[in-house]
Design brief:
13% strand; four-stranded mixed β-sheet; 337 residues
């Protein structure tokens, strides 16, 4: 059992985010497990040919099908969802000593299959001998795998994650954080200021006033994954109906919104599922900050977005009209699955 004790300050700092790098890692884990692969079979069938000829053994050595996955591979989002490149730079900046500690911990993890540990042992030894080289190699392989296996599907995946986050945030606004915790997953519980996650591992930690990040995932199911202090506490939970992501009528979930507003403006509205700065939006939508400012100005003039200054940053968020527009587009997309 994983147990987090929380204060009122922690509850006030509960927030949602999404992680393209996290989905990259969890999807790679899915490929190693026949039981997990089955619910994503259309995606699996589509990408296996693309991955032929790519030596992914170093990734397999740090991403087992079950058991512990090193925390450095899935840094907790610090604010609005970051681009995969931003997250990869965090991986590349991993301290060698941190890398060695986490890989060494894997060697004795009984939660991973013994056959996998035997197969990975030679690679683990090389990684522990040359951690800087291993960190660089893993970063590059994650980028290659992302481009082949996740990037072509990211709009669809992102749309599914956005719809989940929006529904959870509405529940939080209406009923409070305790209701959100209880509704996340059957393995997650909340009682007497204690957040618990049913797990084969046993840890008891305090959130320490830093709150917790809740991250939906298409690929992590059926597991609920955790990150513990002193790192930013995080719970990754399965998005309900993840298998339905791959079964739809061939139209992108955001196509109706994009047809109305244009692709970039639709992407900006979808990204504002959580208030974001101009720079954060630029990274997420993959356009320049100047272009973001122009598009936000148009959306603000249509009463879809509001902006306010917070220190040196300008934070943008959806108005009630903008939220209703996005919610309607997501609902239409959900009916087409």
């Amino acid at each position: 059992m994983i147990s987090y004790s929380a204060t009122a300050d922690d509850v006030a700092k509960v927030r949602f985010s999404m992680s393209p790098l996290g989905e990259t890692v969890y999807s790679f884990r899915t490929l190693a497990s026949p039981s997990r692969r089955s619910q994503h079979q259309p995606w699996v069938d589509d990408i296996l040919g693309r991955l032929k000829g790519v030596d992914l053994r170093p990734l397999r050595a740090v991403i087992p099908a079950t058991g512990y996955v090193p925390d450095f591979l899935t840094p907790a989002p610090s604010g609005a969802p970051a681009s995969v490149e931003t997250e990869l730079e965090v991986v590349r900046a991993t301290e060698p000593a941190h890398f060695v500690d986490e890989v060494a911990w894997m060697l004795g993890d009984t939660g991973t299959p013994s056959a996998w540990r035997r197969e990975a042992a030679p690679l683990h030894r090389r990684m522990l001998d040359e951690p800087e080289k291993a960190i660089e190699q893993i970063t590059q392989l994650l980028r290659i795998y992302w481009k082949l296996a996740l990037e072509p599907y990211w709009q669809r995946l992102y749309g599914g994650l956005v719809s989940d986050v929006r529904s959870r945030m509405r529940l939080m606004e209406n009923s409070g954080a305790a209701s959100v915790f209880s509704a996340l997953n059957e393995r997650i519980g909340w009682r007497d200021d204690r957040l618990t996650v049913r797990s084969t591992y046993n840890f008891e930690e305090t959130l320490g006033g830093k709150g917790i990040v809740l991250v939906p995932s298409v690929f992590c199911g059926p597991d609920v994954l955790t990150m513990l202090p002193p790192l930013q506490s995080m719970i990754v939970y399965p998005r309900p109906g993840a298998a339905d992501i791959w079964h739809h009528d061939g139209q992108d979930r955001r196509s109706s919104l994009a047809a109305l507003l244009g692709g970039v403006r639709a992407a900006v509205l979808e990204a504002l599922v959580m208030p974001s700065s101009t720079g954060e939006l630029a990274a997420q939508v993959d356009v320049t900050p100047g272009a973001i400012s122009q598009h936000v100005s148009v959306l603000r003039g249509c009463d879809l977005v509001t902006s306010h200054r917070s220190g040196q940053r300008v934070i943008h968020s959806l108005t009630e009209t903008g939220e209703a527009l996005v919610r309607g587009a997501v609902s239409t997309g959900a009916r087409s699955l």
